[in-house]
Write a structure and sequence with these properties.
Number of strands: 35
Distance between the termini: 42 Å
Shape: globular
Largest sheet: 8 strands, parallel
Radius of gyration: 31 Å
Structural class: alpha/beta
Strand order of the largest sheet: 12-11-10-17-16-15-14-13
Helix content: 25-40%
Length: about 750
Amino acid sequence: MLIDNKVSGFLVFENESVFRALEKINANKCRVVFVVAEGGKLTGSFSDGDFRRWVTSQDEIDLAKDVSIAMNENVSFCNVNDKREVIESQFSGVVDVIPLVDDNLKLVAVAFKNKTGIKIGEHVISEDGPVFIIAEIGNNHNGDLDLAKQLVDLAADANVDCAKFQMRNMDALYKSGEESDASADLGVQYTMDLLNKFQLTNEELIEIFDYCKSKGMVPLCTPWDLESLMILEDYGMQAYKVASADLTNHEFLESLAATGKPLICSTGMSTEAEIKKSVDLLKAKGSEFILLHCNSTYPAPLKDVNLEYLKRLKTIAGGVIGYSGHERGISIPVAATALGAKVIEKHFTIDKTMEGNDHKVSLLPDELSMMVSMIREVEQGLGLEEERVLSQGEMINREVLAKSLIVNRDIEEGTVITRDMVDIKSPGQGLQPCYIEQLIGVKVSRSMKADDYFFESDLAEGRVSAREYSFNRPFGIPVRYHDYYELSSKSNFDFIEFHLSYQDMNIQVDEFFDAKQDIGFAVHSPELFSGDHIMDLASGDEVYRERSIQELSRVCDVTRELKSIFSSTEKPVIVTNVGGFSKDGFLKESERQGLYDRVADALQRVNSDGVEVIIQTMPPFPWHFGGQSHHNLFVDADEISEFCEKYGFRVCFDVSHSMMACNYYHWNLIDFTRKIGKYVAHLHIVDAKGVDGEGVQIGKGDVDFSELSQVLDECSPGIQFIPEVWQGHKNSGEGFWDALEYLEDKL
């Protein structure tokens, strides 16, 4: 059995179509998907058999119908914390995939009866899992326990998963024991000399295994003889690394297999026929094993590495494979990752000139760190073999760069669209041009003016319209100046939130609005200003930071001007992304405090008389106009609370941003909300997907809004909110009306 925490390929929402569910079944190749309601709560399953039963009961087949009408509501499931034997008892001849839920019945993992994968410690090595990276320390400690611990520390700093050592009983291993063999070849004499000088004692090795665990790494060891294996078994080693030299030692392989522990086997120095014989033996013994492609030359010439053999080795193994490298540099293991290696092993040292054959083919600490970083980048880039989904950055750029279908004349509701009524023009904020044939012949359900966009809802029957809503807290929607009059008149809003662009900052407010407006307001400061200036009050460049302060001061001036028009709001809030981002990675916690102090200092220099600057909670990976950054400030709930308490500021709680932060750092959104609740002055209510799926339509992502509503009533009662659905303003606010319909019985 294998448990996998990646559930995206097995999850469909109740209101997704039968067709979409079938697409997922086809992609995951497991004949089943699991149906969830809001927040991911498990409500049913949908299998090939369910589809057949549903089809045969229908007079007319409509694959666009919600999958919930065809699902099996009596789905079997287990709690993710159940014991392994409890989960395994749910499998049967026809059930080989079991959904696992948390205490709130949210789908959090999937258990597979027959899926290939091996668990070592807390790591699952599988086709869909992350690469298991081993720092091979071996004997590069040169018999020095302190050096061994230093190497472990450096390996932990490099974020490897495992540190590996070797244990030998020289008397059991060599025919001459520890004594020098005058008849041996020079290579054997050299090796025996090194081993006699540079081994750690068994007690020291056990101490270093415990030290690895204290650093959060899995300790592994290669036993070279039965006596060493027995010592490691008594210790409780979780798995074993099998040296290339022992792959053809079938009696020893049988002893290793008899432990029942997973085996990671290097294949260097073995012919393919020998590899196959060893695989047959391991399979016959029921052993869990992983084969590592390897060339046992020190260093291995690049021409002899032959990474293409990984594909052939995978067929021989019939499961997960990896790579153990003895070549110079880091490019080969990174390439092996791209070719499917799920275990990477490389030797590691602090000095390549030290005595010993392994040092010269080992990586230095900075090289090991670079290799780990590059492997993680490559595996992120590889993704999964499933249906292509647009990233948030692509959607942003598609809006700007692509083309849309637009109407080229004024038409009335009920008009049937003909080809001559439609033009294709930029930007890409409407229906994509590939849908033009579907659009022709459609009877539109709204009147349109020349240059209006067509939208996906124009292809569907019925659309959600605005109406009056009822909430237990003030509510509004985000608007721009240009659509204020159209959108603000559609419902009983308590306030509206002006999202300013840097060009909007130049509009004369008293000339744009023809009279005083009887509605409240808030302002969202621009992030981007002319000349590609992204606001950053934490910047270390004083000239850049000074301009950010000046731009925020201008936003305060504009907000005070708006107060003369929207006089019912005594002290409007200004939602601000204050900066603190970096391009290539996150800052350490020790580096962040200074940036918080710089933000506080900058805000003190802004004239905020009559307005309140509030700081937006941020995601780990913000999208800055089509490109992704790393955000360091106002991401962590404890840091947010500390800042607000220390400097007296309040925040805009952006649920989407903070949900993504919780997903990335494995925090709980409800706990997050409780920590910052008393500092919240304004709410952006919106959903999120994963770690960078921002502004998702409410109810389509990871947020449990029923649970969130309860804690908001407890911690932030009466705080105003807007549904900040990405592009919700399009098609006369269609996305906002969908969101408010969903939220009305929750907030």
